[in-house]
Amino acid sequence: MSRPGLRERKKQKTRLALIDAALDLFAEQGYDATTVDQIAAAVDVSPRTFFRYFATKEDVALSLDADGQEILLAELAARPAEEPPFTALGRAMNTMITILEQGDTADRSRFLKARELIESTPALFAGGVRMMMQNERLLVAEIARREGMSPDDLLPHFAVSLFTAAIRVGLEACGPGQLNDLSDLTRHVDRVMELAERSLRPGWDRPAPGDGTASGAGPGSGEGTAGDGSVPDGRE
Amino acid sequence: MSRPGLRERKKQKTRLALIDAALDLFAEQGYDATTVDQIAAAVDVSPRTFFRYFATKEDVALSLDADGQEILLAELAARPAEEPPFTALGRAMNTMITILEQGDTADRSRFLKARELIESTPALFAGGVRMMMQNERLLVAEIARREGMSPDDLLPHFAVSLFTAAIRVGLEACGPGQLNDLSDLTRHVDRVMELAERSLRPGWDRPAPGDGTASGAGPGSGEGTAGDGSVPDGRE
DNA sequence: TTGTCAGTTGTCAGTGACTGCCATAAATTA
DNA sequence: TAATTTATGGCAGTCACTGACAACTGACAA
């Protein structure tokens, strides 16, 4: 495989430099007190360029999480179809962390630094949740595809929502300063996932056998009005 | 009871006027395309004053939801202690909607208008989720109190997180234009809550009998460092 | 090597959210 | 009516973010 070319390499370098500078400044003086100009100056780049790399100031801290979620989605798609939705999601999550663990030391510490910052900064925390919700859509679509259900069906929505809820509890459980290693993350997440498995009925994950309509709205649910057990896409 | 005095009444009037004007403008020209100056002008108030009523532009659309969540919390506190957490949360939610239904027509339509706007506007949607997460903390604290558990215990966190996840799915299920009445909201939310009840083991809600450590750190997680089955507060 | 082209960057001017400050006006209380 | 509190308006300023244009720099082919 040929290397990506000088231009591309330079871009990645700048991107990482911006992230590192931002993370350092945020940790030092706080997120709100840090201006984009400072970050740009630290990397010797114009503020305008910063916004060519990251759409918002939030994004520079959130981008690593975004990468992670992309991996999660890809890994979910790679899970065998026999695995029920929730199991597949959990395994994909573990694989994702494993992949993160394979990065070099700088990558790993950068990721952990970002996570800690996100959890301890209200503005970033909100942004992180926002991202997770956006990703939720994609996860729902993938689960629906795997299971051969409509993406409007309630069950995939519920399953994915439950999954992200569990992950969030796991992430919150990594208190301040408790996140020294990616294995800490795995441990916390696994604990919550186990609690979830323990709390749920076996097979909740998939439509009850003989339940043709699954959890509602099969193909021709007569009335097109509301309350037919489906959930529309609804956002542009 | 003596009426709140002219000053207070005037303030409430301005607040509602700002909300109404904002909701109309948002619906007309979109959230992003509407400036705070426009909203203020529509109510004949200086932009500076707008920010004395609402900390951010988002808040003017989110404030009704915020009121709702406050009610939810109060109703949860009023539920009998015998009810297990998830049940109590669900009942409190229903009561909250009932209370909203008791407002006058203007109040109700305002609320529905705001909800529809929030669901259809990415920026507002994100803000709404943010709010819900903040409220989640309070719900966790209340559940922990009811159950006599530490607010750091994993179980209340999981239960509340699951609850809000279900509510969110219910809210998303109210597609665009499908929210004509508060009863639509009840219907969608109830459907998801039923799915949740059906999916969960009876009693998952409360620590297993004889399980001293509640949901904590199963047997054999020796190290007393992180991951002891608790979740710290972690935000200032 | 050189010229062309596409992608990247800096500069600049501008919009809009949001804040602190101070003077003024209105409501409350004495 | 006078004194005090509280809401408001105006203003100047900061900061996130954007569009437009010009200068630069790798990529690539002649």
TrEMBL record, chains A, B:
Pfam families: TetR_C_14, TetR_N. Residues 198-236 are annotated as: Disordered. Residues 12-72 form the HTH tetR-type domain. SUPFAM superfamilies: Homeodomain-like. The keyword Transmembrane helix does not apply. It comes from the Bacteria. This is HTH tetR-type domain-containing protein. The lineage of its organism: Bacteria, Bacillati, Actinomycetota, Actinomycetes, Streptosporangiales. Residues 35-54 bind DNA. PANTHER family: HTH-TYPE TRANSCRIPTIONAL REGULATOR BETI, HTH-TYPE TRANSCRIPTIONAL REGULATOR RUTR.
